Amino acid sequence: MSVAAIVLAAGQSTRMGAQNKLLLADGGDPLVRHAVKMAVLSQLKPVVVVLGHEADRVRAVCDGLPVTFTINPDFAHGLSTSLKAGIKALPENIDGAAVILADMPGLDAALLDRLYAAFEAEPAALAAVPVHDGEWGNPCILAAALFAEVDALSGDQGARKILVAHRDMVIEMPESSDAATRDIDTPDDWSKFTQA
To answer: Tell me: domain 3-195, CATH 3.90.550.10, correct?
Structure first.
């Protein structure tokens, strides 16, 4: 089964204040490079990175990684525009795509591979999501059959509405760590992460 990765790295980080959260680093890779690197190390192929806000700076910190970059000129209109831009950049013969947020410091390739395996094991599934403490997390894998519904999204919404509509066809993968439910949106989030 051919499943790609779409790393959403176009957002404006408005809740972070003056800083672009994707460029923050705590002694290691910046958040966005970490997410992209984990996608590259996983079984997901190809890896598409959607750029928008400060595209040149974000691209620069991902230098040297074997990925395809695509620009979302409409990034200011919300998450749905980046999701659509990522799907448009995929090869035609793809079976699905893992939608990866670029601000998840706990993400690792093993989580992505477990999610891929769960999706691959159920050929009739339309999606797969990690679940931690009863909460749906990220990334999620969307079957190509859902791409047309993604194209109908607008504004600052991701695929959750689509997943809820097809809940009985969504594979839930239990995840013991909080890596799938922890992202960085605010200075407080970043402070808690760096002091943990």
So the answer is: yes
